[in-house]
Amino acid sequence: MAALLMVIQVVTGLLLRFHYEPSPENAYNSILNLQKSLLFGKMLRNIHHWSARSRSRLSIKLS
């Protein structure tokens, strides 16, 4: 399960990378733009977010 979540993290992270600008001035606006203008952008970001949370909880549970 942890491996599957890691694969999901990598795939969604690579897709998000094309639309995210990691500068202090543009980071927030690039996320807003991703969520509003990209088809399924909000869903992509949520999948990335929730798979990271699930992977963290799974690693704590398995420890």
In short:
This protein has helices at about 1-15, 25-35, 40-60.
Question: Which key phrases capture this entry?
Answer:
78% helix; 63 residues; 0% strand
Describe this protein's structure.
The protein is mainly α and about 60 residues long. It has one domain. The protein contains three helices and no strands. Helix 1 runs antiparallel to helix 3 and helix 2 (about 25-35) packs across helix 3 (about 40-60). The protein starts with a helix and ends with a helix. About 0% of the residues are buried. The model has no long low-confidence stretch (mean pLDDT about 95).
What Rg is obtained from the alpha carbons, in whole angstroms? Answer: 13 Å
User: What is the H/E string?
Assistant: HHH
* Overall SS class: mainly alpha
- The number of helical elements comes to 3
